[in-house]
Amino acid sequence: MFENSTKTSLYATLTGVFTACLIISNIIAGKTFDFFSLTLPCGVMIFPVIYIVNDVLAECYGYEKARKVILLGFFMNLIAVICYNVTILLPAPVFFENSEAFSVVLGSTLRLLVASFIAYLAGSLVNAKLMVYLKKWRDDKLFFRCILSTLFGEGLDALIFILIGFMGTMPIEALLVMIVAQALFKTIYEIIVYPLTRLVIGKVKALPN
Predict the structure, then answer these.
(1) Is 22 helix (H, G, I), strand (E, B) or coil?
(2) Which of 45, 105, 158, 182 is found 20 to 30 A from 3 (Cα to Cα)?
(3) What is the dihedral of CA 138, 142, 143, 148, to 10 degrees?
């Protein structure tokens, strides 16, 4: 990945990884799993990768370039969602027996789509902005900046998504548990893979422009 690369060429690669992971996470988020008596969307498995790449972009390329990738990811995901729904509406031939299953997997309610889009934009932009802001304050504390920016970004993401997507469908106590659980799960995930984040950031910074 880093061999014969420049910071400019690697930016394109990171953009592709970020966008692909975002689309994948939104597809698998339709299924939930039990984690020590907590119910979490399967998207939490890959979504932290998005925030790790977000950290690398903000740290190595600055907020403006990170913001461009975040917005690109938003629009590509929007295109994907539009394509899913147009595909669902198109009449299937009689021999295609999986239309209902296809609709269940790739279809989504307007409420959840709005919730996921707003949460993604707000959480990702806050994560990138805080990463850059903290760099001006404590440039030597990479671990502190990565984890704190993720905690705030993931916390805001979970807060917005769950409140918009599920308010009124379950008790407030359950909503709060889901918000805290998702934010902590994703932050702990990034703490675990922080050595990889630091390694990637170090290698990207060492590349020629």
Answers:
(1) helix
(2) 45
(3) 60
Q: What is the pTM of this model?
A: 0.82
3-state secondary structure of 92: coil
Unique residue bearing structure tokens 């590509």: 76
Of 208, 70, 78, 51, nearest to 145 (Cα)? 51
Comparing CA positions, the residue from 62, 52, 69 lying closest to residue 196 is 52
Amino acid at 197: T
* Residue 24 identity (one-letter amino acid): I
Structure tokens at 31: 């299924």
Q: Which residues face 33 on adjacent strands? A: 40
At 165-196, the pLDDT tens digits run: 778 877 888 888 888 888 888 888 888 888 88
**List of residues 6+ apart from 70 with CB closer than 8 A:** 54, 121, 124, 125, 128
